[in-house]
Structures are given as structure tokens and as C-alpha cells.
Amino acid sequence: MGEHTVSAFDQELNEIDRLIREMADTAARMVSASIKALLAGDAAAAQRVISEDAVMDTYQRELDDRAITLIGKRQPMAQDLRTVLGAIRMAGDLERIGDLAKNIAKRVSAVGSIGTPKSLSHGIDSMATLVLAQVGSVVDRYVARDGDGLRVIRDEDQKIDVSYTAVFRELLTYMMEDPRNITACTHLLFCAKNLERIGDHVTNIAEIGYFIVTGAQLPTQRPKFDETTAAIVGS
Amino acid sequence: MGEHTVSAFDQELNEIDRLIREMADTAARMVSASIKALLAGDAAAAQRVISEDAVMDTYQRELDDRAITLIGKRQPMAQDLRTVLGAIRMAGDLERIGDLAKNIAKRVSAVGSIGTPKSLSHGIDSMATLVLAQVGSVVDRYVARDGDGLRVIRDEDQKIDVSYTAVFRELLTYMMEDPRNITACTHLLFCAKNLERIGDHVTNIAEIGYFIVTGAQLPTQRPKFDETTAAIVGS
């Protein structure tokens, strides 16, 4: 795969990498815009995010078609086959990230009228910042075939989980303080959960990428524990 | 693929079908047991569901290995390649169904102590019944290569969505009635959402299966609308 021996196969693989990068850029843009729309209660911006989901589907279908054609035509073995199958999987994770952003956007109208307390919107915003940094860098590290970088990204998912737990607790508190907050907070809860799930998809991508680059599985995933599953707040 | 010409390739494909069936059976068992544990507040039963997730991972890895070996060894074209790649994808969806059941099981301890109102547990139970029927039959219809059956299953996901919306509304009502219900109801909300997402994975499996069997995509998905994203309850 060195620069000196760029085969036709490598060129087709570069094309697949390009599509993965496009998908990651689109997904990151959707996540960022959905959170902005959510915190501003901007229904029109939310609608634009929702319509961008079709772009992701088109990219994914193009990538799948190219990958399947490539397997049929070149009949790659071992590492090359692993790369092509891995690309199909990564595209699946990126498509789901777009889906989750769309779901956040769909909730804007249900949340919007009520408005979000300042400290809460700060919590969601900083969670989104963490998630966006991860979405951006995981594909960079993969395209650079940087195994160590991918391992670091996988391990950083923990920060997102911690941030999610804090937002979750704060949302429960708001609901308990005033029942009129319950509907909006419930939707914000799902939005925060979506961000946490986007982090999980980044973890998947990092693991798939690491396997492609190194041929080895990352050491069994750190014990993942969604702390909120055991949260008893206020009692 | 007729019965009269069972090649070595077909035999290996049958082996992959067998693994998909095992995964579907395990996933259905996990979903059923997680809901029983949830409604009974049975932490020990929940723990058994959580530990079964490792079985799913093992199946998935075995299926992936077989599929990749098969592609490398037989270098299948067109429909056969579509079948093998489709199997890898279906295994991914089944693995996620197991994951979602595990997530329900993890919430048992947070919900358990509080107890679930009768009408609510009836709602969740009947949602689970719908979902279980879908998980069981989608793989049956796929293994029988029954395209029409798969189309029917895809379209029936709507019933699950309707059921989810009803449970969602009821949960919001309980939270508003008494703030002490909020923590438990929040976890039940995620459990109901998990069941709805399991339905979405069944839809994916039906679509992948239909494509393998017929070579055509199912008509663009019916306009899916999670009604709860627009629900304003009680105000």
C-alpha cells in the first residue's frame, strides 16, 4: 500500500476511503446542526438536518456498491478483503450516527416551546463537543492508518459516558422540581442518550479501523457501564 | 440453490443460515427473559440475560469468520456474494437486539424496587409480545427464502410503533402524577424505546433478507414517524 506502488486496487480503495470521509463529514455536520437547533429551538434548522439524512443513505449505498463490485472484480484476500468488509461496516456505523442526529432534530419541536435551563444546555453542549471531536478524529486516524490513534479514541469514549451520566442526573432533577418540565426533559433525555450512542458508534469505528490497520482486535473492551442504569436520584 | 444440486458452497451457506437461526433464538430468549425480569423485578434473572450477551458475540464472530473464509475460498459472485454479505449484516442486527435486551436487563435493579403499575406493565408486556413475534418470524421467513413474508413483517413494524407511543404517553402521565415515579419511569421509558428499536432491527433484517431473496430493494420504507417525538402530553 506504499505510495510507490499504487495499484488499481489501491485507487479503488482510496475512493472508498474518500466516501467514508464524506460520510463522516456529513454526519459531524448533522450532529452539530441538530444540537444547535435543539438549544436554539430552531425548527427550520432542524428540518434541514432531517432532510440531510437522505444524503447519508446515498453515500452509504454508493460505498456498498463500490465495495461489492470491488470484491467481485478483484477478489481480494486477507488484509485487502478485511479492509473492504471493514469499510462496509464503518459506513453502517456512520449512517446510524446520521440517523441519531436526525432523531435529535425531530425532537426540536417537542422541546422548543419550553426552553432549556442554562446549566442544562451547557451540559448537553459540552457533551456534543466531546462527541463531535470523536466523530471527526476517528475517520482521520483511520484514513491515516494510525492504529495507536484509534486505540486512544476508543478509550476516550469514557469521557462521553461520564458527561452523559451528569446530564441524565440533572434532567431527572429538573423533572422532579416541576412536573411541567417532564415532557421536554424526556425528549432531552433521549437527545443526550443519542449523543452517548453516537459515542458508541465511534467506538465501533475505532475497533473496526484498528482491526483493519493492525490485523489484531483491540484488547477486550474496557468494562463499559452505563452508570445511569443504576441511578436512583433524589431517593 | 435447488435441492437437487447441493454444492459444497450451499452446505457452507446452510451452516451460516444455522448460525443466524441460533442468534435469532438466543436474541428472542434474551428479550423475553429481560422483560419478564423487568416486570417481576427479578435481579438474578436479569443477571442471566446480561451474561448471555457473550454467547451472541461468540456466534457473531463465528459467523463473520465463516463468511469471510467463504468469500476468500469460493470467491462468490452476484447473488451468492449478496447472500454472504447480507448474512454478515443480519448478524450485526441480531447482535444489537441482544445488546438492547441486555440494556433492559441492566435497568431491572433501578426500576425493581418501585414496582410497575398494572396497566403499564400490561402495555410493556404486549409491546414485548409483538416484538418477540417479529424477531421469531423474520428469520424463519428468511431461512425459507420467503420474500412476501419478509415484506409483511417489514410493514408490521408499525404496530410496534403504535404500541410504543401508547406506553410513552402513559409513562409521562405517571411521572406527572407523582414525582417519586420519575426515576423508575425514566428507565421504563428507555426499556420501551429499546423494544421499539428491536423492532427497527427486525425491519432491517427483513429488508436485507428481501434483497437477498429477490435481488430487489423493498419499496422505499413507509414514512416512519416516531409519534412521540411530537408528543406534548398534558399541556
UniProtKB/TrEMBL annotation, chains A, B:
Keywords assigned: Cytoplasm, Phosphate transport, Transport
Look up the record and give one Gene Ontology term from the biological process aspect: negative regulation of phosphate metabolic process
**PhoU domain boundaries:** 20-108, 124-208
Location in the cell: Cytoplasm
Q: Which GO terms describe its cellular component?
A: cytoplasm
Q: Does the keyword Cytoplasm apply?
A: yes
Q: What is its main location?
A: cytoplasm
Is Electron transport found in the keyword set? Answer: no
Matching entries from Pfam families are given as:
PhoU (PF01895)
**What stretch or stretches form a coiled coil here?**
none
**Family per similarity comment:** Belongs to the PhoU family.
This molecule's function is given as: Plays a role in the regulation of phosphate uptake.
User: Subunit details for this protein?
Assistant: Homodimer.
Identification of the protein by name: Phosphate-specific transport system accessory protein PhoU
**UniProt organism field:** Mesorhizobium denitrificans
